[in-house]
């Protein structure tokens, strides 16, 4: 007696369709055309971008195995380009001989342990953010000229050339506007913009919308300056977000730190986010040389420094 043979049921296809994995491989690259139109959402995503990319890559490999590898690689490559792109050298040219000053900026978290590094930076003009009375006294003793405000924000400017306070911190200016009488006089914006956070309550923080408004206010003030201008300090604005591009692209400031390779300046609890939030920007016709970062013992930031002044030749 012949047995009836039963055909096995057709195997159901598991996992996402190939076209979906192809779409997921393209998706990360939409970041570049969409990051500014996304507005505040784009601002938040820009801060979290390295972590988001790694999580997306891991999920693609776990869920898709070999099919997910191209999507994972694509996510990592797009994020790497977004993060590292603003660190690459973009030298605007050399500073004119005899017209240069070295400007440094350092967020010291109020710690006196940073004083040797501050003095050792040998800056002609030094901006100290999250200043404190002890730091202020110690650094002022090493410089013939200084102006400071120890409220919120606590910012000090210490200089080897005469300086004059033009404007104190206020609701729309989170820092000081200072006239610097260097070889070529300029206006210095010494800034500490509150960090963007989901709430404006807490220790020196603001909502993303308020943070963006404050940077827009800085951009408008800088654009109105009739002479040379330098912007230095902790802007709490990552260089992969629209606030940085507002200053660098729309206002036309040159990033003096990109005279060489730049890199992250938030170096402790937020280091995995690879944030460069301490900036040194100069106005049109000015250039930077010798850009460098320097450690600040105990602080959660690295300092930044560069020699700045009128460009020796044609500038952008």
UniProtKB/TrEMBL annotation:
It holds the Pfam family Exo_endo_phos. Residues 121-301 form the Endonuclease/exonuclease/phosphatase domain. The keyword Transit peptide does not apply. The chain crosses the membrane at residues 16-32, 44-62, 69-87. GO terms for molecular function: endonuclease activity; exonuclease activity. InterPro entries: Endo/exonu/phosph_ase_sf (IPR036691), Endo/exonuclease/phosphatase (IPR005135). Keywords: Endonuclease, Exonuclease, Hydrolase, Membrane, Nuclease, Transmembrane, Transmembrane helix. Signal peptide: none annotated. This is Endonuclease/exonuclease/phosphatase (EEP) superfamily protein YafD.
């Amino acid at each position: 007696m012949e047995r009836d043979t039963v055909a096995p049921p057709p195997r159901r296809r598991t996992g996402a369709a190939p076209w979906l994995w192809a779409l997921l491989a393209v998706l990360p690259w939409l970041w570049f055309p969409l990051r500014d139109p996304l507005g505040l959402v784009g601002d938040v995503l820009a801060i979290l971008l390295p972590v988001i990319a790694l999580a997306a890559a891991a999920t693609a490999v776990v869920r898709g195995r070999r099919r997910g590898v191209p999507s994972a690689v694509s996510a990592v490559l797009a994020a790497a380009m977004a993060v590292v792109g603003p660190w690459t050298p973009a030298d605007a040219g050399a500073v004119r001989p005899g017209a240069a000053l070295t400007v440094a900026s350092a967020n010291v978290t109020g710690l006196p342990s940073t004083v040797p590094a501050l003095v050792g930076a040998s800056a002609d003009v030094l901006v100290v953010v999250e200043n404190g009375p002890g730091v202020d006294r110690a650094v002022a003793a090493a410089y013939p000229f200084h102006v400071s405000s120890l409220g919120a924000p606590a910012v000090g400017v210490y200089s080897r050339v005469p300086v004059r306070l033009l404007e104190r911190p206020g609701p729309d200016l989170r820092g000081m506007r200072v006239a610097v009488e260097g070889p070529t006089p300029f206006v210095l914006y010494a800034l500490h913009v509150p960090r963007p956070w989901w709430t404006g309550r807490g220790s020196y923080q603001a909502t993303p919308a308020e943070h963006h408004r404050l940077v827009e206010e800085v951009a408008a003030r800088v654009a109105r300056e009739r002479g040379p201008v330098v912007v230095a300090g902790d802007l709490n604005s990552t260089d992969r977000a629209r606030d940085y591009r507002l200053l660098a692209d729309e206002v036309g400031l040159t990033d003096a730190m990109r005279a060489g390779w730049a890199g992250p300046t938030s170096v402790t609890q937020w280091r995995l986010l690879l944030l460069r939030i301490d900036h040194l920007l100069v106005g049109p016709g000015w250039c930077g040389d010798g850009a460098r970062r320097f450690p600040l013992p105990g602080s959660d930031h690295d300092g930044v420094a560069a020699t700045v002044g009128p460009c020796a030749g044609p500038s952008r």
